[in-house]
């Protein structure tokens, strides 16, 4: 169960090598979290992450999980919940893709959509049902401000995050009153391996800053978290700009 401040004792990470996810887990382990499941494709990176977290004092287990294989999600994630209650599920997997390449190669564009949206819908619903069955828990979904307004530079990635964001909001409404809390996290540009080599956007942030915001959101039982917080105001304005103007802006 969570403590009085909303910090989970047990945590399942879907996307166990995500820099944002690992920054979040490190922060939570220092606070109180003791049991961690890292789910992802088997890799040296996944095992290295587990070793690092064990050194911080957590009991860590790895789990083979593929976002692109939704038929396996119920069985794979069911094994985790069969071991005991999970206080928090962090849905953190996703890929950025390459906009210019993916426009020319529709199969690659579909892979972005299937990973970021279709896989998340499957894993999110399986996790939500398990949390509801145990009667408590939080589902934290990493969305993105890229889903707030279509942009020429990243509309394939942005559209997948827009779908994920709406799905997570609706799932939160569906679970309201059940004891299950859904929190949508909307970071801006995050300096990470995924964005290495890209031009930095205004109000850029770090995995550690996102982790801090997630912890605060859990304590407050927030439904939506913007990182940094100023993006809430910025994106409110951007959403209402005329399309002709948006096309000319360096967004």
UniProtKB/TrEMBL annotation:
Instruction: Quote the SUPFAM superfamilies the UniProt record gives.
Output: NAD(P)-binding Rossmann-fold domains (SSF51735)
Which keywords does UniProt give here?
Oxidoreductase
- Listed EC numbers: 1.1.1.333
Superkingdom of source: Bacteria
Q: Where in this chain does the entry annotate a coiled-coil region?
A: none
What GO terms are given for molecular function? Answer: oxidoreductase activity
The family database entries (InterPro entries) matched by this protein are listed as: NAD(P)-bd_dom_sf, Sc_DH/Rdtase_CS, SDR_fam
Per the similarity annotation, which family is this? Belongs to the short-chain dehydrogenases/reductases (SDR) family.
Q: By what name is this protein known?
A: Decaprenylphospho-beta-D-erythro-pentofuranosid-2-ulose 2-reductase
Organism, as annotated: Streptomyces pseudovenezuelae
Q: What is the lineage of its organism?
A: Bacteria, Bacillati, Actinomycetota, Actinomycetes, Kitasatosporales
